[in-house]
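dude i think i finally got it to work??
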Amino acid sequence: MRASAQRAFTLVELLVVVTIIGVLVALLLPAVQAARESARRSQCANQIRQLGLALHSYAQSYEVFPPGCIVSVGTYPKYDPWTEASVAGAGRHGTSWLLMLLPNLNQTPLYQSWNFTANVVGNATVAQTDVPGFYCPSRRRKLRRGDSKLMLSASWTGGGTDYGGCLGAGNGWDNSTASHPFTDTSTVAQQWYNPLAIGIFSPNSDTGFMQIKDGASNTIMTGELQRLDKSVTDQKSQDGWALGGVATLFTTAMKETNGTYQTGGLNNSFFESPGSDHSRGAHFGLADGGVHFLSDDIDKQIFYYLGAMADGQVAQVP
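look at this
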């Protein structure tokens, strides 16, 4: 008795099956990518929440939040933490609030490795250490190719951050120089050191809860940072968790355009403003410890008020 021959797939049938599989994968891939991004956003929000908890722990111990940056060269309010951090010399610092917060983030050995008699460049090895919780998972897990151009030295291989503290609602830095010193040259009332514009973090600050007169639930404390690498000076960021100034601070600021100031918002290609690689917004931590995802479409005047801690404008977070 002859065995019946097995019938094979024809080329047309095989191509049909492959096409169907391709269509199913194409339909499924966006859903998988959306699920992954949702998980990354949740992780990012949790990391900002951990920063808030660490800041509350620090404030409980010292009765104030850490200074926005430690600077010793210059005269109030004109400080240049980037230059102070990069030029070696006795008494120089240029360090950030994130450095002071390390013990409250389970990074005590890293903190203890820092030589506080030297500035950032004098602690280059420590400053290049990647702290996983300082990177937004939607953007990166370490310095990417080209990121080092925004660091204190183009040879640095790590030590970036995607999170910063809020300097306030005012015009924070001089736009005309790549080092971006804190401004004292603007005649506009909304400068960072104006009492009505100042935020929780500023140079050599010692802000306590009592100074947050607009309410802890109405004041931005931390948030995500833009990382802009544009040829125009006032669109170029700085990077590095150890560095004071633009690298670890942002404003809900006024952007100068043709001599006039307009509220900036976020994700707006202005180096002072916060932003993220998430779609349509960024995460922010409030002084009460809450974390909110604020849309790019947030009313810019409300966003401006949220950056100041004592301007008398009690703006509600959307």
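The longest strand covers residues 163-168.
im so relieved honestly
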